Each structure stands twice: as structure tokens, then as C-alpha cells.
Structure to design on (407 residues):
């Protein structure tokens, strides 16, 4: 059995392994099932102050769910379709070839033309072939040879100019698809992704404290958890396991990783989807987001990734034996787990230390944002803490419901 949140998190803080954490969980009616700000954060001056609910966090890939919402709003408005060819609105994608390897001398990439168009559904489900460079050895090798790290920040189309990792729709691999989707939203709306997020996601929920990298608002910078002596440029290094290149190389609003926001606001987004209250998306659209969108062809690649070297990241705490698929916003469970996730639960994370879930069957959603210490990021311990949160929050939910019956 996983340890309690209090026992394990306080022990990690005492051992100097993490600085703190912010944890929020609620049900569809908005009852605060569990809200805790643990530990402390370090200011740029070196002063330590208690962790607070309104501290501004780097969401990293927690941004993806919010981008999905904005994309699906465009679908509802008829500006985009999940299944149409995106060539007219994203010609850079249409121009991409598929890398299959390198020549025997290792100098020439082996490329072949795409055999089908890229669709929005593929971008949202990581089945388009727009793999992250670190997730595909051929793409990583291409980048080392033709687009090495460094240089000035670049927008989406230039930052991810490398070839596709596989034929669109034929497999699955964690990808830059949400970054491309965010760029497509900008093109069809005429507004930046940040403007769309504020107007269509934040404003309806009363959220005022969100901004894409770099965070320049003077009212937000003093509350930035990631603005400290170990991260003086607020790149989110702790969230990313000690590395901040992904924000260093980004120019503009990246829908796959670039948003900063307090956990107290992120839970409002999770709650809206859990309650299916119509504030962000139509109920039928929310239902579609939570469906498994993998084809039989792409599912084989997904299963291979779950058993591969990055499986710990892709399984997000779910046993390999549990049947899962991929929805439009994250992993979806295709069967329930006794005492834990119900069938149809959606979950994903951000970097190495943030996790979220929405369990519509068991009426619970939550976010856990851990603030690891640097430079010695303890990956194993942080992974254990995330799993303790995932499990113990269900025990706390059960205890809360029992208490309500007594009252």
C-alpha cells in the first residue's frame, strides 16, 4: 500500500529531497476534498517562504490539456475539424517527410514521403509522427547532425522543423503535436494562444494568474516557484529534472509545455471537465475528449511505447496490465482499478514532478505539483511521491464521503 501523502511528503521535505508541494482535489460539486500547500519555496534572494496555493507553477506538459480545450472550442465553432487535412493551415506539416533511418555511413538520413495527411486528431493523440526529438532515436540523431541545441529562441515551426518519426496515423509516440495544434489555433483565430487561453478558458472560470513563458507580469513574478537561485531565469528547471532547454529554445506560446499557473487555478479547469458544466466545452465535446481515439494501427505503437524505455512516463502510474488508450487530452483507462481509477479516467502530467487526473466515474479530480530540490533531482523518490498522491487521495476521498454520511 502506498504511504500517506503527509508521511511521505513531509519525510521528503525533511530529507531535503523536495522543497514542497501543492496538492488540490475536488469532486464535481466543488467540495474541497483535499487542499494542502506543503513545505517552502526559495525566493531569488535566497529567503525561504511557506508554499502557498497561489504560488505560480510551471505546468510543463500540464499545458497540453488546456491547449486541447482551446482546440476543441475551435472545432465547436466550425473553425477546425478533427479529421480534415491540415495542409492549408499548416503547410510546414504538409512539407514534412518521414525519417526511417540513416545510410550505412551514418551521414545521410533516409527519408520517404508521407502517405496520408496529418489531422488535428492525430496531433492531439500523438499519432501524427511529430515526435519529441528525445523520444525517437532517428529524430534525435537528425537533430544532433542538422539542428544541434543552442542558438536563439524559435517559434514552433522552426523549433520543430525535423522530419516525422513515422507515417501519420500509423503508430504512437509522445510528440510536439499540441505545440503544432496551438499554432494552428493562432492561425484560425488571429489571436495568440495565450490570448485564446485567457479569453476562452481562464475568463469563464475567473482565472487571472496565467501566462505563457516567459512570465513578465510584475504581479506574477514574485509568486513564481521557479524563480530562485537555482533557476534565476524561471525556466522550470526543477519540474524538468534539472533542465530548462525547452523554455530556452521557445519563442511565442507553446501549447505543449509553455504555461505557468497556480495549482489552485488548474484545479478549476479539471473541475469544469469533471462536472461537465458547459463553461469550457459542450457536454458532448467533453464526452468525446474522454473517449479512446487510438486506431487499431496506432494502438500497436502505443503498447510498444508503454513497454519501452520511457514507459514510466507514458504509463503515468498505471500498471502495464491495466487496459488504457489515449483520448484527446491524455491517457484514458479502459477499465476500472479496484479502489482507484474508474473506467474512463483521464490523466497526464507535466515534466517530472506534476500529475493530474479526472475520474468521472468516481467523481474526483486532482493535481499534485511537487517542487524537487536541485541539483540532485531524486527521480525515484519523486516518482514514489506522485504515486502516493495518486493512491492516497482516493483513501482521503473515501474517508471524506464517510464523514459526510456521519454528519
Amino acid at each position: 500500500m502506498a504511504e500517506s501523502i503527509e508521511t511521505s511528503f513531509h519525510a521528503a521535505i525533511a530529507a531535503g529531497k523536495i522543497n514542497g508541494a501543492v496538492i488540490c482535489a475536488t469532486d464535481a460539486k466543488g467540495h474541497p476534498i483535499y487542499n494542502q500547500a506543503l513545505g517552502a519555496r526559495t525566493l531569488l534572494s535566497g529567503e525561504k517562504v511557506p508554499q502557498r496555493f497561489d504560488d505560480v507553477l510551471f505546468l510543463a506538459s500540464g499545458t497540453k490539456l488546456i491547449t486541447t480545450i482551446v482546440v476543441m472550442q475551435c472545432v465547436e465553432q466550425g473553425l477546425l475539424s478533427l479529421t480534415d487535412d491540415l495542409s492549408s493551415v499548416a503547410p510546414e506539416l504538409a512539407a514534412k517527410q518521414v525519417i526511417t533511418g540513416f545510410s550505412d555511413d551514418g551521414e545521410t538520413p533516409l527519408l520517404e514521403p508521407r502517405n496520408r495527411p496529418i489531422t488535428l486528431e492525430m496531433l492531439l493523440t500523438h499519432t501524427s509522427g511529430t515526435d519529441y526529438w528525445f523520444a525517437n532515436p532517428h529524430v534525435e540523431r537528425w537533430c544532433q547532425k542538422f539542428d544541434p541545441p543552442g542558438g536563439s529562441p524559435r517559434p514552433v515551426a522552426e523549433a520543430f522543423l525535423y522530419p516525422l518519426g513515422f507515417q501519420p496515423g500509423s503508430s504512437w509516440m509522445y510528440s510536439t503535436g499540441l505545440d503544432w495544434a496551438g499554432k494552428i489555433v493562432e492561425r484560425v483565430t488571429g489571436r495568440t494562444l495565450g490570448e485564446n487561453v485567457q479569453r476562452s478558458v481562464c475568463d469563464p472560470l475567473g482565472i487571472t494568474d496565467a501566462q505563457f513563458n516567459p512570465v513578465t507580469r510584475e504581479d506574477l513574478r514574485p509568486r513564481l516557484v521557479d524563480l530562485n537561485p537555482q533557476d534565476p531565469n524561471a525556466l522550470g528547471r526543477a519540474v524538468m529534472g534539472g533542465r530548462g532547454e525547452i523554455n530556452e529554445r521557445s519563442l511565442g506560446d507553446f501549447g505543449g509545455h509553455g504555461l505557468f499557473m497556480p495549482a489552485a487555478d488548474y484545479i478549476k479547469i479539471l473541475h469544469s471537465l469533471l462536472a461537465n458544466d458547459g463553461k469550457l466545452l459542450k457536454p458532448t465535446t467533453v464526452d468525446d475528449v474522454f473517449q479512446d481515439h487510438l486506431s487499431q494501427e496506432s494502438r500497436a505503437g502505443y503498447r510498444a511505447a508503454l513497454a519501452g524505455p520511457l514507459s514510466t512516463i507514458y504509463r503515468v502510474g498505471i500498471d502495464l496490465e491495466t487496459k488504457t488508450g489515449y483520448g484527446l487530452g491524455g491517457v484514458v483507462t479502459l477499465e476500472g482499478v479496484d479502489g482507484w481509477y474508474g473506467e474512463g479516467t483521464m490523466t497526464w502530467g507535466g515534466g517530472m514532478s506534476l500529475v493530474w487526473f479526472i475520474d468521472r466515474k468516481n467523481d474526483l479530480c486532482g493535481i499534485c505539483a511537487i517542487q524537487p530540490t536541485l541539483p540532485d533531482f531524486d527521480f525515484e523518490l519523486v516518482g514514489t511521491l506522485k504515486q502516493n498522491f495518486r493512491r492516497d487521495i482516493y483513501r482521503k476521498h473515501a474517508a471524506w464521503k464517510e464523514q459526510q454520511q456521519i454528519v
Remarks:
- The longest strand covers residues 32-42.
